[in-house]
Amino acid sequence: MIKLIINADDFGYSRAVNYGILDAHKLGILTSATLMTNMPGAEHAAKLAKENPSLGVGVHLVLTCGKPLLKDHKTIVNEKGDFKKVNFYKDDFQVDLEEVYKEWKAQIERFLSLGLVPTHLDSHHHINSFGNLYEVFLKLAKEYNLPVRNNIKKQVYDISKDFKCTNFFAGELNKEMVNIIYIEKNFKAYESVEIMCHPGYLDNFLLNSSSFTHLRLVELEMLIDKKVNEDIKSSENIKLVSYREL
């Protein structure tokens, strides 16, 4: 039996994204989401999460989108006070890890202040796996005793030895990934698998601030597809779960 987590990143990005994630859960096979506490839709996402407790919700730690929660950062923001873009982290980079720790801790604490209990930790743009930022990420996971996304290369750090995570992480949603034959054939060696996705509807804020727009609608359609739902939910080899059930 494969425990399958289908997690939507970017919960809290905007109201339209939030509603898309909620529909993917209520009408489809989405089981989990991770919330960006620094974005405009964070409080709305928290309200929806409380109204729909069957959706597992974790923290989507942010370092490359929007503004930080804390002021006076020096190495992780640009001249406008916004987070530096992900391209900054793709080459050799230097940031103050203590700044990252304080900011990410503030994001977790804001999540808690919204009245939610986190199921796990991951990060926007997989920034937790860049350079030595994984050290801060895992320090916080240990501090809050939380499972983590399995997106750090084993040669860098084998997180499965010290942290609860899925056996396999699929970092991209496509039609193949939600095909029952593909899942049962390619994931049968794993006890647990996470598939990452980004379903959502569109609003002006998203269209003006993100490069990932209309594909969110495509992903939403895949997740609520009638045949996909019938196949996966009736399979004797797959159990849809959130990080709570790992």
UniProtKB/TrEMBL annotation:
InterPro entries: COD_ChbG_bac (IPR022948), Glyco_hydro/deAcase_b/a-brl (IPR011330), YdjC-like (IPR006879). GO terms for molecular function: deacetylase activity; hydrolase activity, acting on carbon-nitrogen (but not peptide) bonds, in linear amides; metal ion binding. Mg(2+) binds at residues 60, 124. Its EC number is 3.5.1.-. Transmembrane segments: none annotated. Keywords: Carbohydrate metabolism, Hydrolase, Magnesium, Metal-binding. Probably catalyzes the deacetylation of acetylated carbohydrates an important step in the degradation of oligosaccharides. Homodimer. This is Carbohydrate deacetylase. It comes from Clostridium amylolyticum.
